Amino acid sequence: MKSISEIDNIGARTKKDRIFMGLVVLLSVVTVSPIVLIISKLIIKGYKQLNFGFLVEKMPDTMQAMTAVANNELIPGGIANAILGTLLMVVLASAIAIPVGIISGVYLYENQGKWMANLTRSVSDILQGVPSIVLGLISYLWVVKHVTNGFSALAGSFALGIMMLPMIVRSTEETLKMIPQTLKEAGLALGIPYWRVLFGILIPTGFSGLMTGILLAVSRVIGETAPLMLTALGSSVINTNISKPTSAIPLVIWEFYNDPNMVDLIWSSSLLLMIMVLAFNLTAKQVAASRK
Amino acid sequence: MNSDKITKIVLFSVSFIILIIAGGMVFSLVGGAIPSFKTFGLGFITSSQWDPTEGKENYGALPFIAGTLITSFAALIISFPLSFATSLFLGEYFRNTRVAKVLGTMVDLLAGIPSIVYGLWGFYVLRPFLIDIGFENQGFGVFTSSLVLSIMIIPYATSLSNEIISMVPNDLKEAAYSLGSTRYEVIRHVTIPAARSGIFAGYILAFGRALGETMAVTMLIGNANRIPDGLFSTGNTMASVIANQFGEADGLKLSALISIGLLLFVITGIVNGIGKLIIKKMS
Q1: With a CB-CB cutoff of 8 Å, which residues 217-236 of chain A face chain B?
Q2: Is 0.90 topped by the overall pTM?
Q3: What is the ipTM of this complex?
């Protein structure tokens, strides 16, 4: 008969355990390293260009940029046209998506288990999975071709709005589900009209949850490039007319990337875009955390 | 009519907009695709021609379908060890600790980086690096695209599997510990079998993400209209060909691009549907 020490291989097993844990930690660090690498690259290459003028002046033309680069100076001008374009389109997209999204979320919450609500929920989930470039195609076919008869800020906003919609629907429904049923019952028992119970009690109670969803949706669409290439196209001047082509920060990054004279501007533009995305993202997290 | 009824009607009709949009989307994509499917028939899917010369235009989507599937699949394989390790880190080893919170936030931020910034980083940092270490000699192509894609889809693969892993009942794990298992053995024989289908669903959803990614791939794949003949070959994906060729498209070419959009819509729909179905079965 063998003794315990002969069949027991706890040494080897512990070793395997340690190695595995080491591997998990190592690979996890590798996984998140790109975020540090990317952001530090953007800061190192982009901070010099990112000054006040960059925010308030409009885009330089290729010749100006070429001269500046040849003289080893910072490229003059900024991307105010793109910043304003992004703001315009995000606000417009929110104006489309937020009301529809919140009301649909309330509808889904109020009709749990009914087939029509289930269908709407599934379709909304499908919409969320549709690649953004396909949404760009749709907005091109609908808005560019039939509404504004040309590339326009409205078409860009529409594409971004459809992207935001399912995210807001879902976050609204999930938020409402977490509100105690008794709150609604108390309101109804007091004889408050149904619509006021929904929009005067439930929505304000879940406000921070809705806000989180909206901010995350905005942070998602603010960096979208592909659908805007098919809809808003881009413009080198400041444009506030929603039926005209408009620039956006991701669009000018794409333009700079394709123009050897302007290529130095990609880093500062990307840095600015990244700061905006992070600001929305972290604010959303903060709002979500403050609820608990 | 009382106000309750009006409220219900308003709720219903506003949410109906979602169905209208989705229905209209299918309708418009199919409508836009008809000219090219009429001209080329089902050959559109199986042909690898892409010839925009006027008069003898000939379009086939096979190279792009192949490019999309190859890059996405390669991205999934590359991302697997990374996101799997990360979900164990977050859901098992360091669950509910400060370090997991920080790492989790960073993984979430990976999902926040715009596609075009990934593309720039891939082009100006990763591509030269791959050339320097002698891994690649041109730096463009399926491999570089897949590498960047793999980073982009990690948050999607991780978030679901991390959640499922952390939901594995403690009783099960404690039973295994009490029998003398090491942590690795618990993970190997208890956690993973219990969480298997959830982890699998997470990877399917991540795959669905990879299929539709546009900008980063467009900047890195080399934009050659041919079926990639290897991991280091150049190619084009369905999303990148739409982004690339849309600017100068009208008539039959536009219809061909819309058809590709329709195919992409259908493929991502099927993949996401499978993922959602698995999740539904679990709960």
Answers
A1: 219-220, 222-226, 229-230
A2: yes
A3: 0.94
